[in-house]
Amino acid sequence: MLETDKKLQLGDAIRLAADAFEAAQLYYGHGTDNAIDEASWLLLHALGLSPVNEPDYEMLLNAEQIIRCNEILAKRIERRQPAAYITGEAWFAGLRFKSDNRALVPRSPLAELIMEDFFGLLSGKEAPRILDLCTGGGCIAIACAYAREGAIVTASDISEQALALAAENVQLHKVQSQVKLVHSGLFEQLNGRFDLILSNPPYVDQSDINAMAKEFHHEPQLGLVAGEDGLDLVRNMLAQAPDYLSDNGMLVVEVGNSATALEAAFPHLPFLWLEFSHGGSGVFVLTRQELLTPR
Ligand SMILES: C[S@@+](CC[C@H](N)C(=O)[O-])C[C@H]1O[C@@H](n2cnc3c(N)ncnc32)[C@H](O)[C@@H]1O
Predict the structure, then answer these.
(1) Which of 21, 76, 95, 265 is spaced 20 to 30 A from 170 at the CA atom?
(2) 5 CA distance to ligand 1 centroid (A)?
């Protein structure tokens, strides 16, 4: 890896680390999409530098700093840990979140929907009631609270561990007055009606899970796997959501690659598939009325 007895500038260290990532055929997609960004993120973390500010790429690293960098690089290359779990942080909708293996690394395209004023789905609603079903570490719920000051957000998950991380993120962002966390298997412990239900549930099918890169196996499998066709949770959501949506309420769910299986299983439902400028697909919108379409 990086040699301690040579003069090494930060910029060169990043390039060498990126080469090593490429040679090891790492998987990107838990926060970055290329070797250079991934290497920068990890080395800046190793050096205690902010990933937000432009670093001095000509800065010379001393032997002790190079050793610290090598320790971090080994975690990424040998153990295939996602960078977010190594650094303990991840970004979603422009916000920093604590991230560890209690919940998936945030990466949903729903960030763009939230940042783009919900693509107009909440227009005219000053204090919308929003439910983030399957909240994991709470990133979607918290981003919603930032996006709409008046929003009243409920965030639920079946995993107590994920909710513990979500609670830390709620505290970090000081949104306790807006975001309520509920321990619940889907809708089981939820009450009331919502103007918008957002969800990035588990939706990976059995064949995909077997083929997934090692990085995914560090994440809680409860957050990924959803039966033979990836639709176990979504089926229940489609059936129960009308009872939890206001009259004009909408359900927005990410199903990724399981979109084809979903359309085949529910041919009578008029799924509207959202388009994203910053990547991602397989996110549908259905209104409460559409969900009530008879088969
Ligand atoms: C794909 S992760 C999404 C986490 C977060 N929303 C995000 O976008 O990063 C799915 C989450 O669903 C939760 N989950 C799995 N089965 C569930 C169930 N039956 N009811 C509620 N939550 C469930 C998992 O614990 C996990 O946190």
Answers:
(1) 76
(2) 47
Q: What is the DSSP letter of 31?
A: S
User: 220 C-alpha to center of ligand 1: Å?
Assistant: 9
Express each pLDDT in 83-92 by its tens digit.
999 999 999 9
Give the span between the Cα atoms of 87 and 42, in whole angstroms. 7
Q: Rounded to an integer, what distance in angstroms lies between the CA atom of residue 52 and that of residue 262?
A: 39
Backbone angles phi, psi at 72, to 5 degrees: -70, -40
C-alpha–C-alpha distance, residues 284 and 261, integer Å: 13
The model's pTM:
0.96
- In the chain, CATH 1.10.8 sits at 8-87
| DSSP category for residue 59 | P
What residue's CA is closest to ligand 1, atom 9? 106
Is the distance from the beta carbon of residue 32 to the nearest atom of ligand 1 less than 6 Å?
Answer: no
Q: At the topology level of CATH, where does 108-291 sit?
A: Rossmann fold (3.40.50)
One-letter amino acid at 178 equals Q
Q: Ligand 1 pocket, 200 CB below 6 A?
A: yes
The CATH architecture one would assign to domain 8-87 is Orthogonal Bundle (1.10)
Indicate if ligand 1 lies below 6 Å from the C-beta of 44.
no
Q: Report which protein residue has its CA nearest ligand 1's atom 13.
A: 134
Nearest Cα to Cα of residue 131 among 203, 187, 204: 187
Distance 56 CA to ligand 1 centre (A): 39
Average pLDDT over residues 168-193: 98
**pLDDT level of residue 205 (50, 70, 90 thresholds):** confident
| Cα 85 to averaged position of ligand 1 atoms, centre (Å) | 18
Q: Is the CB of 222 under 6 A from ligand 1?
A: yes
What's at 121, amino acid-wise? Answer: L
